[in-house]
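## retry 2 of 3
previous attempt timed out at serialization; input unchanged, resubmitting
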Amino acid sequence: MAAETKYKRILLKLSGEGLMGPREFGLDPETMDRIAAEVADVHAQGVEVSLVIGAGNIFRGISGAAAGIERTSADYMGMLATVINALAVQSVLEAKGVPTRVQSAIPMTTVCEPYIRRRAIRHMEKGRVVIFAAGTGNPFFTTDTAAALRAVEMGCDALLKGTQVDGVYDCDPKTAENAHRFERLSYDEVITRNLRVMDTSAIALARENKVPIVVFSIHNPGGLSDVVHGNGTFTVIE
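## retry succeeded, writing output
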């Protein structure tokens, strides 16, 4: 079935908020189970899958307490929060029979592997899902930039960004009735129009290495499988 898919190797970027479900912070088991089922479905079709997960569900939950914390320390706190999310998603995926490895940019060998590019590629070639945690391992870089970096390093055919809406709009579709969804955009258009899909550094990294970015809703049942086959509703940035 892999021959039918548009992309053979993907990196899926999920926001921490995408794991919250209806909660104000933390992890929602039902939402995590549904997203893991989507990943398992695509994995079963022979697609090589890696993930980068944000930390907004945990770190923004304590951001009131974090006010006044120096930026570098706050960024490291956020990186540690991504490890928590990665371990949680790993557990749910493995409960569905999907072999999964977590690799952290900040070495913590008691709980997961350190990030080693060649080992990560080998895991994917062997049919394991790899979750990249702790961002780039450096402060001042977001998980969007980490996702673009890992997608390039892994030689992914596309960077899939699962969001709360089904693509890139010219204004917020939740507040503006006449919001227009783009079918296609160039990297430069995203930057010049300040569309805030991802950080400028992430867009630039994808542009330099010709990795298309596909923005879709992670909340549409079957949405990930549709995107991998080139179907469904989404915005392509290339």
